[in-house]
Amino acid sequence: MHKNKLNQDNKVEAKRVAILNSALSEFIKKGFNTTRIEDIAKQAGVAKGTIYLYFNNKNTLFEEVIRQNIKLVLNTLNTTIQTNELKAQQPEGHKTNAHELLQNIMLNILGTLQTTNAGDALRLLIREGLLFPELTAFYHQEFITPILNQYRYILKKAYDNKEIKVKELSDYPQILVAPLVFGIIWQTVFSNKEPINLEEMLKVHLKNIFIK
After folding, report:
1. Same domain? 42 vs 66
2. Does the predicted model carry a pTM greater than 0.70?
3. Are residues 85 and 135 in the same domain?
4. Could you give the CA distance from residue 161 to residue 83 in angstroms, rounded to a whole number?
5. Which helix (H) or strand (E) holds 116?
6. Range(s) of the domain holding residue 4
7. CA pseudo-torsion sign 39, 44, 47, 52
8. Positive or negative: CA dihedral 58, 119, 129, 127
9. CA–CA distance, 126 with 187 (Å, rounded to integer)
10. How far is the C-alpha of 138 from the C-alpha of 5, rounded, in Å?
């Protein structure tokens, strides 16, 4: 009985994931306004009515697409910080400086954006965000704010440890986020004309901030 319920739960979750992935694909290709629920259902391999068993309407489906992918990036952020803390607690552990920590965070987040649907979700939010002020506010609260708070904390410690020379940098942690967002937009629009190595660009950006 328990096994049957587990199998049923797995099937339900598999359908939900298929719907979310198909929705993201359709939203990216057609935009929110012109995407139809029946097209999402067809790509997901489910009946149109099945989607309404999971999501009330197209708006809530769009919102969940963004939320699910926010979680991927936040998990990357938290895992990177926790890994750094665990290494530092080891008897002969390497204590990561601010430069290394920020580079690890930024490169790991970039990796998540490039290897999962999170990058497409970010592009989608940039394109459609004005249509969803509540979703944009949620994205800012759940994704942007935690990252900026972590960056502020790290930059303040970096200044105290004389790793950076500009104290006010911690007041504007957006400076650290900007190249990543710019890079995603650039690769979306100009990658076929002038591709850039985002990893190397982020490393160069950090080198300009930290004292050698």
Report:
1. no
2. yes
3. yes
4. 21
5. none
6. 1-55
7. negative
8. negative
9. 14
10. 34
